[in-house]
Design goal:
This protein has ten helices and 21 strands. By secondary structure, the chain is of the alpha+beta class.
Amino acid sequence: MELITAQGQSSFLQGLGADLVFTQDASGQYHSFYWRDAQKYGLTEEQVIGLHLKDTFYPVALEGYRDRIQRILEHRNPERCIHWFRYNKENLPFELAISPILERDGNATKVLVMGHLLPESEVQKVIDSLVPYSLDPNQKLLTQIARKIRRTLDLDTIWQQTVESLGRAMQVNRCIVCSYKKGDLEVKVEAEYCQESFDSMLAKKLELENEPELKEALLSSKPVVDYITTSESQQQSILVVSTSYKDEPNGLICLHQCDRHRQWSDAEVELVRELAEQVGTAIAHGTLYKELEIATIQAEEASRLKSEFLANTSHELRTPLNGMIGFLRLVIDGVADDPDEEKEFIQEALNSAIHLLNIINDILDIAKIESGKMELELGPLELDALFRKVYDLQRQQAQHRNLNLTIEMPRGIEGITVYSNYQRLLQVLLNLVGNAIKFTEEGGITISAEVIRQNVRFKDEELPGYVKVRVADTGIGVSLDKQDKLFQSFSQVHSGLNRPYGGTGLGLAISQKLVETMGGVMNFFSMGEGLGSTVTFTVPLFQDPIVITQDY
């Protein structure tokens, strides 16, 4: 009985007079199949009926073909089209007429496909004749794409909706969108539609010098078609259109036909070009929105940090101020038992006043730096003398905490003269050594220098190299996830009024800005909490140091 039914179906399909006739459901599964040339290609009904498209005789643009079937079933309108089918490693172009099969209730769950194999020479001619039939559905789909991308300001959504919808509508193997900014030497693939059997290009960076079709599309602002290549991207035929806003390119839309050579019709090129214009505007609006969003987040974070800074600074200002008031009141009230104790009270008041002055100076310094009004006079200074000054000023504080403070100068070298500002370089070193002492419970701090010879140009001066200064400690260290906060103004690793260590959180930020102003670079290194820290900075050499030769 089943054999009779199968024979009956085959006879019925043959009777329709087409070279190729079959029925399919919405998923693309074959329910009946007849092809006059099937035996020529070694294909039988058993190898087709009941199987899904990807497992047998299948259209190359699989997803686009399925979308077409879905559209025909939904709207119940027949369509004419050309689809390339693949079987036994051959690609075969068929001209097809696809019609919905209406059931008694008026619904359609299957389609009837009739068609014939086209000679290669006839493909383009038939495509041109089909433009009046195929343009309208594609135009509707592209209008839907444009409507979708206009409804969002999210760049990722704009890019992805563009490639997904356009790739399927144009029945290509791959569709990508690349971002571009004026002056860039490369573009990045931001979103991709790609059929399973082809390599992904998502997130790849493409150098424009190596991709002539992309470069031409950006320079000419015109569609670039029919570049035939055998690159690793696998494309055989490519259509590239640049997106733009106010005549400035801001991206690229690329369609790749990887399985065959494809002639792009004028109608196809025009449709993609029109869409590119709308995508370019959407990208511009999305980029602006993203920039505003980032700026808003940064402004909110800056406001939060400054509010936190003001709270911390108020606490820091009150501490020395209360100390001054307290010790001076003891002197005025005659609480001191003898002149020595009175002198001690006055000395403590003075120490508090100096501390208060240092805090105020830090605040003024960061204000000058942020407003661009920090101007420094640079000249030659002896590094050895600077290190000795730092040692003299910080030795007592280190000894008070039972810490070793060590200076290490490069061996075999004398007379290291740097090109800098003495007062500000001293301020940087005192900041770094003071921080190291504050955050070290046991062990010590080492100040060292390394001379690096290479040509350096700074302030229109040709200099022979630079010195890398290191301040290393055996202190508490900083976890890797918190190190990016160290050089932020108004920021501390330990924040809040109950933080274990005092300070305004401006020391490292000021030091970094001062070093950069004097032509250097500052870096921070720590392997983690409890593993100590090392801060390095560079300062230009004024002249070659003296090399000491030793006689043996």
